[in-house]
Amino acid sequence: MIYQEHFVQSVHLYLKEEAKPWLEQIPSIIKACEEKWALTVGEAYELSINYVATASTKEGREVVVKICIPGEGFDSEVEALKLFAGRGIVNVIDTDEDMQVILLEKLNPGYTLATSLDDEKACLAAANVMKDLITYAPTESRIPTTKAREENLRNIIEKHAEGLGPLSKQTLDQALQIFTYMNQTTKKHYLLHGDFHPYNILKCEDGWKAIDPKGLIGEVEYDLIQYILNVLPEDGIKEVTQKRVDLFTEKLTLNKERLLLWGYCHTVLATAWTVDEDGSYNKGFYQMIEVWKELYKEEYGEPSL
């Protein structure tokens, strides 16, 4: 089976020595899906690290088969999809835990919010989707919380005590301090998408719906940071970020100060995730660290945590 080059590279980066065996299993998993659900699996979408393809049932219904890369993400995604129950998000039809496969409804026409509207209209559409998604977290869940993100950053700092890539020790330490403060002062916990950005919002017959939740528990303000970090212009980044922050806080009645603080600490973490062995990193994310700092300082002064 011939795979997209970027997909193969991403899988090898994520799974290391386990990548080849998993890639070799995919054809047999597809065949098992066809037998279990009486499907004909078609072409794959543009892939990242999961194998996702269109399919049709024997009745002619269009569906999507998602073969999840081995790891902890499958359980959280399935639980989140079931808890959201189709409110603002794609419906799950069935799952197979042994194969780590999710059978989903197909959203039509299915183009992404990232390439469809001007920025303000896209943000308004995203805010409406988020409004549908907002729901309190369950009392018991296997879904990780934003505390896990804090621990992730703490582990990075332990391994890179003097800094990582373009991130100085001071920047990493300040981000961890803010992460800790934010988690300690969180009063209400919500079920979050965990990877809410314009490429994960698709056009459907009755508007827009999110796809591919990672599943996370925390504040709604945190869930919007990844959206704000994506599809930024080359010029006027600060102004666009300010407009996005103002629109989301107004439409969703959010705490602007907490959104800005989450923005800073998550963006430091997101930048750290992109630092490669060759020293390359996501320059857009890195640039946003200073933007969050400036926006907070202009509105609230230096943070006193």
Automatic annotation (TrEMBL):
Biological-process GO terms, alphabetical: secondary metabolic process
Protein name per Swiss-Prot or TrEMBL: Aminoglycoside phosphotransferase family protein
InterPro entries per UniProt: Kinase-like_dom_sf, NH2Glyco/OHUrea_AB-resist_kin
GO molecular function, one term: phosphotransferase activity, alcohol group as acceptor
